Amino acid sequence: YEWHSSEFGDYCLIFPEDQPDLFLPDHVNKLLDFSESKGALAIPHHVGYKLGWRGANWKYFRSSASPVVEVFSEHGCTESDRSPYPMIRHSNGGRSTANTIQVQLARGLRFGFVASSDDHRGYPGAYGEGLVGVWAEELSSKALFDAIKARRTYAATGDRIALDVKLNGHPMGAHIPATSDREIDVTVEGQDPIAMVELLRNNRVIERHFPEDTLEETSQLPGQAKCRIQYGWGPWADLDMGRICHWDMTIKLEKGRFLKALQCFQSAPFEETLRDRMRIVSPQEIHLQSNTTRENCYGEDPTKALVLALDADPEAVLEVELRQPSKQVISTQLSSLLEDNVVTFTGVFTSESFIIHRLVTPDEFSASIRWQDRVTSGGPDCYYVRVTQANGHLAWSSPIWVG
Hints:
Elements: E1 2-3, E2 10-14, H1 28-37, E3 41-45, E4 68-73, E5 76-77, H2 101-107, E6 112-116, E7 131-134, H3 141-149, E8 153-156, E9 162-167, E10 170-171, E11 175-176, E12 181-189, E13 194-201, E14 204-209, E15 223-233, E16 244-264, E17 277-282, E18 285-293, E19 303-324, E20 328-333, E21 342-345, E22 352-356, H4 362-365, E23 366-374, E24 381-389, E25 394-397, E26 400-402
Parallel strand pairs: 4-6, 11-26
Antiparallel strand pairs: 1-2, 2-3, 4-5, 7-8, 8-25, 9-10, 9-12, 12-23, 13-14, 13-24, 15-19, 15-22, 16-18, 16-19, 17-18, 19-20, 21-22, 24-25, 24-26
């Protein structure tokens, strides 16, 4: 549950077991005592609002109860007051510099990073509203809690960017003894071309990697790639033409196979009868039933998408058979998607449309980097990595502290 306080800021409490009672004390110290007694996570929420206006009261921060802190949510990004994704979606005002994440790291506070939604629609994983990645030993409640408490976490805005960072072999979230020589290894797998990977030490960027600098001149099949199929758009609600569009499509791949399908499903429209459903029928066929609308869509984005990881021959053909909102079949040579996308409308003007985006190749969506840093000062020093994709989605690793 979420505990609100103008004075102390909001906390999201997550328990390892069922918690039948809401404990609603009048002071944050009582809340944090209760959280620790239950083995729960007390995660500071939308911390960047002004102190006294439901921003975090960092005076009472307790790392044992709050091993991780929210750096991004549906409210916006709180890394700094100049970061992308400003806090403009709610009535709490904008970001207060003194309450942002980097200021607290500079003060010496130690915590990992998470991102999470806050749209109150009960839609786990709502696209674009924040996700947490957890490096856990296994997919179990205990392993997840252990990993989060150890700060082996990273935050992402929407696309499920996989991010692994180690410093002298130690994972994100670690504290390591003082040493002058630091070797930082970064592995990234994005869902769109990676525009930039940055290494920050003590909140200052000390290294940048641009994958496009090392791209092959021409990408070719056979091999692996990622293809995003995005659908929605439709008529403007401002023209009193808003509606819910029902989608039913089958996606087939000839002379290739699907390796994975990642869903980019935002929370609108959301009713019990409007569930998004994707089924992998076979390595060559995926069935999708979904719904899009401009009315109450998140971030004024009236689209949803699938990101398809695939392995295909040069002669492979991708086919989209649409049954709703109109009946049509679109086929394209996969190799042609290296250079051009396919935009298809389902009817006359104001009708919905869908795009088969250009392929993203491994040298575009992945990066493996090793940076060397030598520091002779006493420290302590705080390192973290920030990833930016071409489509604007971001990911942040939890910090690693030296000294």
